[in-house]
Amino acid sequence: MGIETKLTAARAIATGPQRLSNTIPEGYARVRLAAASLCGTDLHYYSNFANAGFLLKNPVTLGHEACGYVTDANGSGLQVGQLVALNPIMNCGICAPCMRGEENLCTAKKFPGSATTVPHLDGFFRDVIDHPVRCCRPVAAGVNPRHLTFAEPMACALHALNKGGVAAGQQVLVTGCGPMGLLAVAGAVARGATVTAIDLRAGAVEVAVRAGAQGLVIGDFDEAVLDRRFDVVVEASGAIAAFNTALRAVRQKGRVAILSNIQLREAQVNLNQIMLKEIEVVGSFQFNREFEEAVQLIEMGAVDFDILTARAYPLAEAAKALDTMAAGEAFGKIILLGSEG
Ligand SMILES: [Zn+2]
Ligand SMILES: [Zn+2]
């Protein structure tokens, strides 16, 4: 029997047998979890029962990065046994942003494991998931689920690269080598950019170097060496200091793309640099067509996701996995594996 996990309060995960309805909603397929991964958003909810000022109203299953095997296609074109990437963005399809292909900005979007969707929808940290067929992307045979779970976070990273206009031959700086920063590094390297990555933690910088970046540990070098060197800076740390570093490191008329999940707070930002150098600061929230781009990168084997994986835990140890992430000592993504393999 499968299990489900629920966040019931800050730092409290209840794990138990999953209760299943006998009927699968129309337009949905039933999927057995293969692999899921932990996101900074999950960690915010786990630590605070809230994220970016959005409080959870009731217990919810976390997780929005996952893939699974179809167990019931429910009359759709999917095939039983097929591995599918789960796109967590369930957009309405009819609002103005949706009509422009900007599902990430949909005004009636549903997103699992998030306080922004009311009533909350359970996320992917459970063994059996009913998911809209149109949000299930079947993949080529032989794709490793441990790699495919990167589809969603990789799509977020690629969206930031697209917003920043990252292309082959450019100089790109990534500030912060957490999982998102590392995916930005890998994505920019795959595009043929020359990438530099910085972080306070030497271990995290080491992973960025293995992913193809030149790595610098903050404190070990003079920040002046970064000045005006970069066409694009991707801010992936969430630290205000790093944002100010980005403003000095970007060239005139360059772009700073904000990929990090910056929490609400007062901050001293050097706006003067934005004016003087005519910097474009662009936000990046989730993704659109980049989900497809990410799945294709994974199918092609263009990125070594094993390098970017810190650890894997069975689903039943979701709380332990979140505690490991909270401790900040695991460099790269933390993965959960479905109970049935
Ligand atoms: Zn995420
Ligand atoms: Zn919409």
Give a description of the structure.
The chain is an alpha/beta fold and 341 residues long. The chain folds into two domains: 3-150 and 308-337, Quinone Oxidoreductase, Chain A, domain 1; 156-283, Rossmann fold (3-Layer(aba) Sandwich), CATH 3.40.50. Helix content is 26%, strand content 27%. The protein is built from ten helices and 17 strands. It has helices at residues 40-48, 96-99, 145-148, 151-164, 179-190, 202-210, 240-249, 271-276, 290-300, 318-327; strands spanning 3-9, 12-17, 28-37, 50-51, 54-55, 66-72, 83-86, 128-132, 136-138, 171-175, 194-199, 214-217, 230-235, 250-258, 280-283, 309-314, 333-337. Helix 6 links the parallel strand 11 (194-199) and strand 12. Helix 4 packs across helix 5 and helix 4 (151-164) packs across helix 9 (290-300). The longest helix is centred in the middle third of the chain and has 14 residues, at 151-164. It is globular, with a radius of gyration of 20 Å. The mean pLDDT is 96. It binds zinc ion (ZN) (2 copies). Residues 91-92, 95, 97-98, 106-108 line the site of one zinc ion.
Describe the structure concisely.
This protein is of the alpha/beta class and 341 residues long. The chain has ten helices and 17 strands. It folds into two domains: 3-150 and 308-337, Medium-chain alcohol dehydrogenases, catalytic domain (Quinone Oxidoreductase, Chain A, domain 1); 156-283, NAD(P)-binding Rossmann-like Domain (Rossmann fold), CATH 3.40.50.720.
Give the helices and strands, then pairings.
Layout: E1 3-9, E2 12-17, E3 28-37, H1 40-48, E4 50-51, E5 54-55, E6 66-72, E7 83-86, H2 96-99, E8 128-132, E9 136-138, H3 145-148, H4 151-164, E10 171-175, H5 179-190, E11 194-199, H6 202-210, E12 214-217, E13 230-235, H7 240-249, E14 250-258, H8 271-276, E15 280-283, H9 290-300, E16 309-314, H10 318-327, E17 333-337
Parallel strand pairs: 10-11, 10-13, 11-12, 13-14, 14-15, 16-17
Antiparallel strand pairs: 1-2, 3-6, 3-8, 3-17, 4-5, 6-7, 7-9
This protein binds zinc ion (2 copies).
